[in-house]
Amino acid sequence: IEEEGKGGVDRFDSPGKGRGLRVTKRFKVGDLVFVSPAYSYVLSANERGFYCEFCFARKEGLAKCGKCKRAFYCNVGCQKGDWAMHKLECSSMCAYGENWCPSETVRLVARIIAKQKTQKERDPSEKLLQVEELEAHLDKMDNEKHEMNETDIAALHHFYSKHLEFPDHNSLLTIFCQVNCNGFTVEDEELSHLGSAVYPDVALMNHSCCPNVLVTYKGHVAEVRAVQQINPGDEVYTSYIDLLYPTEDRNVRLKDAYYFTCDCKECATKAKDKAKMKLRKLSEPPAPEELRKMFLYGRSIIEDFRRLLTMCELSLDKMGAVFDDANVYMLHMMYQSMGVCLALEDWDGAASYGEKIIKPYSTLYPAYSLNVASICLKLGRLYTALDRPSQGLRLLKKALVILEVTHGKDHNCVTDLKKEIVQLK
């Protein structure tokens, strides 16, 4: 961390967790703990034309690259600033046309390799601490993950061989594992995916299901803010996963993606599990084995679920015979159903799902949760479009309270939301 300790945050060896971060001064709820520029980042291909490739600003009238015509920028300054990275893709996109399709992870790794080369050319003795110290967990990969990494390495060679000098195969495998374990999804205030990035300082934070900070983004810069009071000497904890799920599910996800299980207070007490696994009041409660099978079904169907509204409705009917609407598997399926309704422009259907989601979300998620802010924004704006302004205004104000803590009062998403609220009054 730049000027380590002077800003109130230090690296240290966290007992049983490896490296971590701790604070050297008190931070109140909403305080900015630290800011981290990305070591390397890439805009999602789906957002091209809407956001600047270099600064991630969203605006009308972006200028496109004159050669590939597929990268967009605010101005000449942003285009020049991005050229060192965009040149890796520009001529390749021209050559492959519609067949140019490396994954976002491949694109990010290509940029990391290019940046490492630039650093070594500048100072051959420099140790690339920022990336080389990231965990890779090569020895813990299963066959499926190994095959995915090999596929990505093949794509890297295919699309970037004319523009990059690659390290040896094992080094490439290590970089892909480091990105998969430590990469971040850059999101806007509605939790929409904008791109991917590597933030070595942010990656130093350990996980807790009771996080005391939350990571948000201003452009492609990560901002870490307190969502609980943090006292001098306290470790800084973020959450690596969605906290809606019960303890067992959270730890299955952590074990699969990050190779550890959590022992935080929430995992030890399982305080919210009963509410998260709420059942319908039936005359004859389901047998434990039947219940277990339904839990497994709920978990697998969420992982396998793809966009079709009919599948959502069938799944909701099936699970709804046993699960209460506030059960997290029902909530997840209703959230997906809401998204499908929005895509199909079924505004009333989307609103009906949103109305069922918002109260349980507010109860089951932490006080300052982006998931709660996101549903408040979506449903609030939906109400406004459906000519229900008072309901919309109430939810937008609720989102504002959260975003002022998670993003800071001067963030553009906060100032834009304030303007939106004023217009509705």
From TrEMBL:
Keywords: Chromatin regulator, Cytoplasm, Metal-binding, Methyltransferase, Nucleus, S-adenosyl-L-methionine, Transcription, Transcription regulation, Transferase, Zinc, Zinc-finger
A cellular-component GO term for this protein: cytosol
Domain MYND-type as annotated: residue spans: 52-90
Reaction catalysed by this enzyme: L-lysyl(4)-[histone H3] + 3 S-adenosyl-L-methionine = N(6),N(6),N(6)-trimethyl-L-lysyl(4)-[histone H3] + 3 S-adenosyl-L-homocysteine + 3 H(+); L-lysyl-[protein] + S-adenosyl-L-methionine = N(6)-methyl-L-lysyl-[protein] + S-adenosyl-L-homocysteine + H(+)
Principal EC category: transferase
SUPFAM superfamilies assigned: SET domain
Subcellular location: Cytoplasm, Cytosol; Nucleus
Domain SET per the UniProt entry, residue ranges: 7-241
The keyword Transcription is assigned to this record: yes
EC number: 2.1.1.354
Key word Transcription regulation present: yes
Pfam families named in the record: SET, zf-MYND
Single biological process term from Gene Ontology: methylation
Superkingdom to which the source organism belongs: Eukaryota
InterPro entries with a match to the protein in the record: H3K4_H4K5_MeTrfase, SET_dom, SET_dom_sf, TPR-like_helical_dom_sf, Znf_MYND
GO molecular function: histone H3K4 trimethyltransferase activity; zinc ion binding
Role summary: Protein-lysine N-methyltransferase that methylates both histones and non-histone proteins, including p53/TP53 and RB1. Specifically trimethylates histone H3 'Lys-4' (H3K4me3) in vivo. The activity requires interaction with HSP90alpha. Shows even higher methyltransferase activity on p53/TP53. Monomethylates 'Lys-370' of p53/TP53, leading to decreased DNA-binding activity and subsequent transcriptional regulation activity of p53/TP53. Monomethylates RB1 at 'Lys-860'.
PANTHER family noted in UniProt: HISTONE-LYSINE N-METHYLTRANSFERASE SMYD, N-LYSINE METHYLTRANSFERASE SMYD2-B
Protein name (database record): [histone H3]-lysine(4) N-trimethyltransferase
Organism whose genome encodes this protein: Denticeps clupeoides (denticle herring)
Gene expressing this chain: SMYD2
